[in-house]
Specification:
Layout lengths: L3 H9 L2 H23 L4 H17 L1 H14 L3 E5 L2 H14 L4 E4 L3 H5 L2 H7 L3 E4 L2 H8 L16 H15 L11 H18 L2 E4 L3 E3 L4 E6 L3 H7 L3 E7 L3 E2 L5 H13 L6 E5 L3 E3 L6 E4 L3 E7 L3 H5 L15 H5 L3 H4 L10 H12 L4 H5 L9 H5 L6 H15 L7 H13 L2 H18 L14 H5 L11 H8 L11
Parallel strand pairs: 1-12, 2-3, 2-4, 4-7, 5-8, 7-12
Antiparallel strand pairs: 5-6, 6-9, 10-11
Helix pairs in contact: 2-12, 3-12, 9-10, 16-19
The structure holds iron/sulfur cluster.
The site of iron/sulfur cluster (SF4) has 15 residues, from helix 14.
Length: 491
């Protein structure tokens, strides 16, 4: 995938995709705004969520151990995965141990992040997505373009075509007479997926929250496919980023009110599933599983998250609850779509989280912090008050600091010169006099701008720089004593 500027320019030429994105993000935004407006305490909820997440991150080591102890006591097996490779190895090994050559999956950005489907395929295990949008993406051989609605870039006509052409290669084919009516498409997906739910002995999910005090995992979704995954198969494997921990069951009250409204513009998600270990009756060797999976495995994934936690200026990104509200309000995302970001996490939070998790090594990741107009709409929409614009500028500073000193770029030279001038009053005075001279040379009306400067054409290409005034502010201030008197020189 090329860096964001090139990928975005390519995406912007796709008018059909722009139309699909505009329509979808506008609809979700309107629903979200209406439901947020219902709550007088929306700001208090946001502040509470921020405080809970901050407290959790400050003591994450303790809460993770508490979670492991509670989940293990309830019959789950907890695995620790420092990076993607070990998480994939653990999941593939568990599936093979269970005798499975296929698994059903509930939509999970974490498993997308670690490339689990590819790793399972390499181990001889087919992974079938069961969320409708994730199914569309899988059947199309595509990648997700949105955190909550992975197929947001597709319209109904495209989805019908994908189902007709590709469903048969993955299992039950699309029925004759299927139309692009949503009910007809959903019926085709339901019949296709039910066959897989009834056949699969292993399911893989993510989780929205992991409750430390009880060892409970929680999954919220809209279609019931997640509920099927956590109840029907004999073996349930959940891959959970370590930042998904919240301390207490009571804390879910805050997050469930924020998440549904922010993500899909609903008061409550249609399905909220919770599971705590294995549900047994009796004890010791006489115990038997009376409901749900016989084996529950939880893979706690780091994959760069402790590095993010170690950065005091950047760790607030770990508060993210993946609601995608920031994507839906972003003027950049809503035009380019998610693929241009070249990451599982697109949009404003992707522009922060991806380089934080992967590092600023590749050209693609070094470009992501610039994929924003810094308008601030993402912060206003974020239910956990992540200061995304601040994090973006923090990362931009890291990109610049990381650039080799030689040969210096024209922008770096200009910034160094400005820094030297602002730090020395005499140099500043000289600079002000030169700016006054520039005013006389360039002239023009009040809206006149500085023409491009050789070597800085790129910088000037996207900026209008006003012609400096004839007199600097500090000069005017001392001449007029802060505007309290006229100097009498006619200016
Ligand atoms: S950064 Fe905030 S708005 Fe964006 S996905 Fe995360 S929680 Fe939602």
């Amino acid at each position: 995938m090329p860096p964001f500027p090139e990928a975005a320019a390519h995406a912007l030429r796709d008018s059909q995709q722009r139309h699909n994105l505009h329509k979808a993000t506008r609809t979700i935004r309107a629903k979200r705004d209406a439901l947020v407006a219902e709550r007088d305490d929306w700001e208090q909820l946001r502040l509470s969520a921020e405080a809970i997440k901050n407290r959790t991150l400050a003591h994450l080591d303790e809460y993770l151990l508490q979670f492991e102890e509670a989940a293990t006591a309830a019959g789950a097996t907890v695995h620790w995965a420092p990076e993607a490779e070990s998480a994939n190895r653990i999941v593939a090994g568990l599936a093979i141990d269970a005798g499975a050559d296929e698994v059903v999956k509930a939509k999970s950005m974490t498993t997308e992040e670690i490339g689990l489907d590819r790793a399972l395929a390499a181990a001889g295990v087919d992974a079938f997505e069961t969320d409708l949008a994730a199914l569309i993406v899988q059947l199309a051989g595509d990648v997700p373009s949105h955190i909550v609605v992975p197929a947001i870039h597709r319209n109904r006509a495209e989805i019908r075509q994908i189902f007709e052409q590709n469903m048969g290669a993955f299992g039950r084919p699309a029925p004759d007479g299927m139309t692009d009516d949503p009910a007809s498409l959903a019926a085709a997906a339901r019949a296709h997926l039910r066959e897989k739910f009834l056949r699969s002995d292993v399911a893989v999910t993510g989780a929205n929250f992991a409750v430390a005090e009880t060892g409970t995992l929680m999954l919220v979704e809209s279609e019931g496919n997640g509920r099927m995954c956590v109840t029907m198969p004999k073996t349930l494997i959940s891959v959970v980023g370590i930042e998904k921990i919240i301390p207490t069951w009571r804390d879910t009250e805050v997050f469930l009110q924020l998440l549904a409204r922010s993500a899909t513009g609903e008061r409550m998600n249609p399905y909220t599933s919770t599971w705590t270990g294995v549900h047994r009756a009796g004890s010791g060797s006489g115990a038997s599983v009376i409901d749900g999976p016989e084996q529950v495995h939880i893979v706690l994934l780091d994959e760069g998250r402790t590095d993010v936690l170690a950065d005091p200026a950047g760790r607030s990104a770990l508060r993210c609850i993946r609601c995608a509200a920031c994507l839906n309000v972003c003027p950049v995302y809503s035009r380019t779509g998610g693929h241009a970001y070249g990451s599982v996490y697109p949009g404003p939070i992707g522009a922060v989280l991806t380089p934080q998790l992967r590092g600023l090594r590749s050209e693609q990741d070094r470009n992501l912090p610039y994929a924003s107009s810094l308008c601030g709409a993402c912060f206003d929409a974020c239910p956990v008050r992540i200061p995304i614009p601040h994090l973006l500028t923090h990362l931009r500073a890291e990109v610049v600091d990381d650039e080799p000193a030689f040969p210096p770029s024209p922008e770096r030279v200009a910034m160094k010169a400005a820094s030297a001038m602002f730090g020395r009053p005499a140099a500043m005075g000289l600079g002000e006099r030169l700016a006054g001279l520039a005013h006389k040379v360039i002239r023009g009306g009040p809206d006149a701008t500085v023409p491009s400067v050789p070597g800085l054409a790129g910088w000037f290409g996207s900026r209008d720089v006003a012609v400096p005034p004839a007199e600097s502010f500090s000069n005017w201030w001392s001449r007029t004593d802060g505007g309290t008197r006229e100097s009498g020189d006619g200016r």
